[in-house]
Amino acid sequence: MRDTSLQLRYLSEPELIGLGATDISRCTDVMCEVFSLLATGDYRMGGPNHSSHGIKVDFPLDPVFPGMPKHTSDRRFMAMPAYVGGKYRATGLKWYGSNIENAQRALPRSMHLVVLNDTDTGAPIAVMPGNLISAYRTGAVVGAGARYLARPDADSVAVIGPGVINQVAFRAILAARPGITRVFIAARSAASENAQKFVQMIRSEYPQVEQIEVVDSIRSAVAAADIVTVAATGLAGAENYPTFEGSWLRPGAYVAATSNIEVDTAFLRTGSRNVVDHTPLYEAYVANFTRPYHERLGALGVKYQDMLLDGELTSADIVEFGDVVDGRAPGYDSTRPSFFSIGGIPAEDVAWATELLWEAERRGVGTVLPIWDQPTLL
What SS3 class is residue 244? Predict the structure, then answer.
C-alpha cells in the first residue's frame, strides 16, 4: 500500500535565527544565485509575464459595508508566489498583511508568512514567519549591489531613512565592503528614535566606524559617500519621494534604492548607470497603472519605464543586475554613479526560505505537523 501520509514542518522565528536567517553574507550569496537564475529565465512568478510582484487586496477610502477596513497609508494584504529553479527547484508564497497603524500596537507595519510547497505534488511542506526572511533578502540585495557596483575601497555610506530595512542593508554593505569608516544618516531629526537606534547599532556592532553623523538633508548625507542606501517611507507622488540631483554624488558612487526615489530625468539619461534587479518586474507593476507611472509607484525601475516610453532611455541604457553577477555586463563604473532599483522579487523570498528549510531538515529543527494519514477526498 502506498504511503499517502502528509506532514509539514513549522519553524518559529527564534528557530529561524538559530538556523542562520540573520546570516547576511550567506543570504547575499543566495541572492546572487537568484539573480543568475532570473537573468537566464529559470524562474516563474505570477501575472501574464510571469514576473509580478504579487496580487494585492486593498480597501476603499469610504467603505459602504460595516466592518470593512478603510484605506489608510500602507493598508493592504499581499500574496507573492514564485518558483525558483537551479539547485532550489522550489515553489512557495509569501503572504502578508500591512497596516502603518501597527506602530501604535508595538507591532511591525507588515507581518509575513512564508509557505513552501513540494514542486512536484503541490503539497505544503513548510510554514514559517516571513519578517526576517523578507527583511534580510531585501538588505542582502543591497549588499549584492555593494559587491559588484561599489568601489572596492569604499569607506563611506549614506543612509537615507534609518529604519529596519536600512539596518539590515547596512549590515549587508559592511559585509561586502568592510573598509567603511564613515557613516552619514539623513533623518527627519537627529533626535528621532530611528536615528538614535541606528547610531547605537553602528557603535555596538561596528566599532571600526570612526565617524557617524546625523544630518538634516539628503544632499549633506550623500556628498561624501561612496555608497548610498535609500529606504524611506513616504506618500505617493514624486514631490514626496526622496530627491537626488546627480551633481550631489561622487563619480563611482553606488546608490541602492529599495523604496521611493526621485532622480533628475536628464541625469538618468546622460550621467548615471541605470541598473535594475529585474526589468519584467517593473513591466508587471506598470500594467496596473496609468501614466505617469512613477507618480503612482515610486520605485526607480518604474521611472525607467516612463522614460523608455518617452524615448528618453532605450533598453540598452538599462543594465540587468543578473548580467552583472554572471559577467555579461561590467560591474563597478568609476566614471559615474550607479543607481540600482530594487523592487521586491518573490523568488528571493522562496530561495532564502528554502535554504533555511534545508538547514532545519539537516538539524532536525522545527515542529512537524501532521496533515493526514490518508486524504479524505480523492
Answer: strand
